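Response to reviewer comment R2.3. The reviewers asked that we include at least one raw input/output pair. We reproduce the pair for FAD binding domain-containing protein here without editing.
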Amino acid sequence: MIQFILNNQLIKTDKPASTTLLDFVRYDENLRGTKIGCREGDCGACTVLIGSMKEGKLEYMSATSCLTPLPNVHGKHVVTVEGLNLPDKLNQAQQAMVDCSGTQCGFCTPGFVNSMCGYALTCAEPTLESAISAIDGNICRCTGYKTIERASGQLASKLISKDQNNPISWLVANEFVPDYFLTIEERIMAIQAKEYKSNGQIPIGGGTDLYVQKHDELHDFDLDYLFDKDHLNGISFYGNTCVLKSSATVTDLIENKTLLDAIPNWYQYLKLLSSTPIRNIATIAGNIANGSPIGDFTIILLAMKAELTLTNKVNESRKVMLKDFYLGYKTLDKKADEIISEIAFKMPTNGTLFNFEKVCKRQYLDIASVNSAITVSSFENTITEAHASMGGVGPIPKYLAKTSEFLANKAITVSVIKEAEQILQTELSPISDARGSEAYKRLLGRQLFFSHFITLFPETIKMDDLI
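Raw output as returned:
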């Protein structure tokens, strides 16, 4: 049985494990405030909150319920907009939306309210910027967003005095969430003792790729749910090597202090990857195994010389470099019974710089037209080692082997960068599609490659000299 708390109610269900949380709350529990929009994690109309125990502490996150399989909420607290209602008045997020005229047709409003309440539950230092960032996964077609941004700012201003030692009690007392939240931690602890076990053959993590690609087929799949298995979770550091377990999410990386300290602009880079609700449940291993030619984290890890550990059903492991993992479009150097159990990469040290660039039709919450990353080690004015990657320019995520080899032991000059770009073009094989023509993608490849050096070596490489 899958067991979890839905708002204030204990749920025990034997529904097929491939059922999405969205379908369960709407059709089995008749909680219609959670809307069906895109079913691809883009619109945010189905946003819910999921609370789980981490290191002995109850923590909440926003998530797109359309991409969340029921087993991934086993032993957790799921909150829909109905579960945020106070007995006789609006909660603070709802009131802010009213005060600032943040709603028109109302279809998107429950998702916004859930994201805003999720921000109230999680924020440590409330600011207008972070409050707006918390709703980056919610789309509104009516308001133009300014009224919703003002509502987010009003909410943030009321959170300034939040008690970080007893946050739930403070939020209940100040009418952000209803009082049943005070009992959830104890009730969750009781459920967590009852482990959910799946015996499927096809591994699935957060579901953000598989449920988009094969939503109608999943009821026929024999799935093995990996998202919350302890041996597949965590981030470890050994010297300057970072090792990710396969269920580590983008949010785990964007919040990791060691990575934030080691890689300048790490937060800004990862903010370009989808939206908060998706980052909360999207696993790094899933991004790699999906094999998308424009997988953002795949491109980042290619430039970091990542190495994968593949483990089969009898716990036998082997290692393969990420740049050798892709054999062709959606064809991987992976056997049917293997999963990506670990991803290891070197963090930049003194003399090594990293940069990530992405162009898409909108800045956030979108798939790249072309993306690119580079790691450059240099001494004085000479590149000692370089590793560059690019997505959207061929059938696989592309490690730019010839370009990287050419850059080694070259002076950091405009002429060298221009010559390297000519070699880069020989490694690209883009096609014209909905994201742009072949010529446009080649142009983007050029501009993003130049941008790496303009960004990393601003004293030496100037835009006007390259273009």
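The radius of gyration is 23 Å. The first helix runs from residue 21 to 28. Further pairs are available on request from the corresponding author.
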